[in-house]
Amino acid sequence: MAVHEHSHRSSGFHLPSFRRNRTASASEPAVSARTDASTARAYAFASLRLLTGFVFLWAFLDKTFGLGYATTSGKGWIDGGSPTKGFLGSVAVGPMESTFHAWAGDLWADWLFMLGLLGIGLALVAGVALRIAALAGTVMMALMWIAEWPPAQHLSDGSPSMSTNPFADYHVVYAAALIVLAAVAAGDTLGVGRLWAKLPVVRDHGWLR
Fold first, then answer.
1. CB contact at 8 A, 42 and 168
2. Alpha carbon distance 37, 27 (integer Å)
3. What is the pLDDT of residue 12?
4. Angstrom distance (rounded) from CA 47 to CA 42
5. How many CB atoms lie within 10 A of CB 108?
6. In this predicted structure, what is the pLDDT of residue 31?
7. In whole angstroms, what is the distance from residue 148 CA to residue 165 CA?
8. Which of 12, 17, 124, 154 is the most buried (most CB within 10 A)?
């Protein structure tokens, strides 16, 4: 009986230990692969965030200072030009055509539009308040989508609208990107999103995240 118990302990001591070591060794590459994939996704989303933020910031800078791209030199906001008059005043299709014409060049419209560009751009570049930026950016993109009204094949005067897609134009893509960036907390990588999230007011109010 004593020999039987000794044999049982001896065989049970070596084999389970070997199997555990082999399983742990085999799982290490899988854990490493998952870590690498997670890191790659984080940097991919961070890159998308920074590029999208630059789109909004550049639009603000060009319209403010007339850098010679979409806004010609001398016609910037600081020169007395209106950031909304040209775009909204030229709307030629859609259910809000007359409304946009009435808004074009109004002081409140100029300020709201420019502060939106600046705020969204800064939030994306810094990686903070991405949920607010996503909401504000989606509203802005929706209004611009309505102003261009991609579903129309012809403008109000009957000329071709030159729309290339009745729904998924670049405004929709930007809005979707903003929502995705907020959903995945893209500000935690290459941004100060983690520090922002630790602020007491942000911890207490999740919508600021």
1. no
2. 16
3. 47
4. 9
5. 9
6. 75
7. 11
8. 124
More reliable by pLDDT, 21 or 122: 122
Question: Of 32, 192, 209, 39, nearest to 131 (Cα)?
Answer: 209
Distance CA 126, CA 176 (A): 19
Residues 123, 129, 135: CA angle, nearest 5 degrees: 90
Q: For residue 178, how many other CB atoms are within 10 A of its CB?
A: 29
What confidence tier does 21 reach under pLDDT thresholds 50, 70, 90? Answer: low
Encoded amino acid at 139, one letter = V
Distance CA 112, CA 97 (A): 19
Handedness of CA 8, 10, 13, 16 (dihedral sign): negative
Secondary element (H or E) of residue 33 = helix 2-65
Check: CB of residue 45 under 8 Å from CB of residue 186: yes
CA dihedral over 56, 136, 164, 98, signed as positive or negative: negative
Give Cα 86 distance to the centre of its chain.
27
